[in-house]
């Protein structure tokens, strides 16, 4: 009966803890009785063969265990899966783009021996792999949160009224796929800005024999991080609320306009205040870079990257203001 | 019949049988049985139930309150006996009505063809 023991153990291991003892006891008793009964009917058959035949009839242990708990429990359910897949793809592409850009920003600073070029590629690839794994894990967590937070909007068949179906051109109709993607992007941005910014905002730099990844985070970024966090938390909360309600309402439209204006203020502060990207020369020297290299790269960042970023941020501010006006019209007139 | 068509048919037959199985179990368990004996009884009456289907189903019906169970731990092998509960008998009544209604409807559909 060793096979039966092994089978029961496998089934038991795949069951929820509260079911294990009871189901195992019943399963063992049933299996033993079934084997005995078949042996009784075919006394010449090898007992081991009978046990194998009986266990085959019961099916693989995992399959049997899963039929004791038929309700599928998804971390990311089928309705969110297309958005989940799209988010993972976008994240990996953006990450690859950022790291590729970081590598080539550094490579553009003069001739580079093959050995250091290879080192730069390896270091960037290592950064990419580490950040990819963290990102994918994070996307799963983000979607698991959205899955649970927006679950209430799935009304039961009994409470569902077809009269509440939005018309095709109803301005309050929500695009679930788009909103889910936006929510995931906001949550990811929150995580990246707070925990991984040093890994993403920076560049692979070289100076003589020295080369390596240098983060570009300046005081402008740190000063505005709290405001960015506030905008993101408000936007995420609002997004989950709208997903749960299943449609836009006047109040949520006003709140959405409020978060857009707050985001515009954030962009304004970052675009016109101290630069969010700046190399810390002290950090570079503490990490083995020469004072000349630190001064050169600080200058490069101030003269090229910061002004370009400021233009981009100003354009972003302008675009957000236009977006806010469109939202205001939508709230007042009811149509985009 | 092609292998894929055969597999589709087998799945449909399995689904059909699963639907009827609850009705058969609730009916048979008006009298107390333990799992193995119930399976044998149903097979004897012409309804063979796959091994891996019956026992999880008994648990689910018990969780839903349609069956009640007790362990018998006397001499020999411990056995869990199941019986249709009061709620299960009410559900059985409803299911039986539905079964008769479906059977009549299906017969009418067939005759109309």
Q: Could you give the distance between the termini of chain A?
A: 72 Å
Shape of chain A: flat
The chain pair forming the largest interface, with residue counts per chain, is: A-B, 20 and 15 residues
N-to-C SSE string of chain A, H for helix and E for strand: HHHHHHHEEHHHH
CATH names the topology of chain B as Arc Repressor Mutant, subunit A
Largest sheet of chain B: 3 strands, antiparallel
Name the structural class of chain B. alpha+beta
Determine the mean pLDDT of chain A.
Answer: 83
Helix content of chain B: 55-70%
| Low-confidence segments of chain B | none
Biggest sheet character of chain A: 2 strands, antiparallel
The spatial strand order of the largest sheet of chain B comes to 1-3-2
Summarize the helices and strands and which ones pair or pack.
The complex is a heterodimer of chains A (336) and B (113).
Chain A: H1 2-13, H2 17-41, H3 47-58, H4 61-67, H5 81-107, H6 114-149, H7 176-200, E1 202-207, E2 210-215, H8 219-245, H9 250-272, H10 281-286, H11 291-333
Antiparallel strand pairs in A: 1-2
Helix pairs in contact in A: 1-2, 1-4, 2-3, 5-6, 5-7, 6-7, 7-8, 8-9, 9-11
Chain B: H1 3-28, E1 33-34, H2 35-44, H3 51-63, E2 67-72, E3 79-84, H4 86-112
Antiparallel strand pairs in B: 1-3, 2-3
Q: Your description of this structure?
A:
The complex is a heterodimer of chains A (about 325) and B (about 110). Chain A is mostly helical. Chain A has 2 domains: about 1-65, no CATH class; about 80-335, no CATH class. In chain A, about 70% of the residues lie in helices and about 5% in strands. Chain B has a single domain (about 5-110), classed as Arc Repressor Mutant, subunit A (Orthogonal Bundle), CATH 1.10.10.10. Chain B has 4 helices and 3 strands. Chain B has helices at about 5-30, 35-45, 50-65, 85-110, and strands at about 35, 65-70, 80-85. The radius of gyration of chain B is 17 Å and the shape is globular. At the A-B interface, helix 2, helix 3 and helix 4 of A face helix 2 and helix 3 of B.
């Amino acid at each position: 009966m060793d096979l039966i023991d092994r089978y029961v153990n496998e089934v038991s291991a795949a069951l929820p803890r509260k079911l294990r003892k009871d189901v195992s006891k019943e399963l063992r008793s049933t299996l033993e009785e079934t084997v005995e009964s078949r042996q009784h009917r075919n006394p010449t058959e090898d007992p081991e063969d009978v046990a194998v035949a009986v266990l085959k009839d019961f099916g693989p242990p995992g399959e049997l265990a899963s039929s004791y708990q038929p309700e599928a429990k998804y971390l990311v359910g089928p309705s969110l899966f297309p958005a989940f897949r799209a988010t993972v793809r976008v994240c990996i592409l953006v990450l690859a783009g950022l790291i590729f850009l970081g590598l080539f920003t550094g490579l553009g600073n003069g001739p580079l021996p093959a050995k250091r070029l290879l080192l730069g590629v390896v270091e960037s690839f290592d950064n990419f792999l580490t950040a990819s794994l963290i990102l994918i894990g994070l996307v799963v967590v983000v979607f698991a949160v959205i899955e649970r937070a927006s679950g209430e909007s799935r009304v039961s068949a009994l409470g569902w009224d077809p009269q509440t179906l939005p018309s095709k051109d109803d301005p309050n109709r929500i695009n679930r796929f788009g909103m889910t993607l936006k929510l995931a992007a906001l949550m990811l941005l929150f995580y990246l800005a707070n925990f991984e910014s040093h890994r993403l905002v920076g560049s692979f730099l070289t100076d003589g024999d020295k080369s390596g990844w240098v983060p570009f985070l300046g005081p402008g970024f740190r000063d505005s991080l709290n405001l960015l966090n506030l905008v993101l938390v408000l936007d995420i909360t609002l997004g989950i609320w709208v997903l749960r309600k299943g449609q836009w309402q006047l109040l949520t439209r006003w709140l959405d306009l409020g978060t857009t204006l707050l985001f515009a203020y954030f962009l304004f502060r970052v675009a016109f205040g101290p630069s969010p990207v700046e190399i810390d020369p002290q950090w570079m020297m503490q990490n083995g870079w020469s004072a000349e290299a630190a001064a050169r790269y600080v200058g490069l960042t101030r003269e090229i990257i910061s002004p370009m970023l400021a233009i981009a941020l100003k354009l972003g501010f302008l675009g957000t203001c236009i977006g806010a006006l469109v939202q205001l019209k939508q709230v007042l007139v009811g149509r985009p | 019949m092609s292998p894929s068509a055969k597999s589709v048919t087998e799945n449909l037959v399995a689904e059909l049988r699963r639907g009827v199985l609850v009705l058969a179990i609730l009916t048979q368990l008006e009298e107390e049985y333990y799992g193995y004996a119930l399976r044998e009884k149903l097979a004897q009456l012409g309804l063979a139930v796959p091994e891996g289907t019956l026992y999880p189903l008994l648990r689910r019906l018990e969780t839903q309150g349609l069956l009640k169970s007790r362990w018998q731990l006397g001499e020999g092998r411990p056995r869990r006996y199941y019986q249709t509960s009061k709620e299960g008998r009410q559900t059985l009544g409803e299911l039986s009505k539905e079964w008769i209604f479906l059977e009549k409807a299906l017969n009418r559909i067939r005759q109309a063809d």
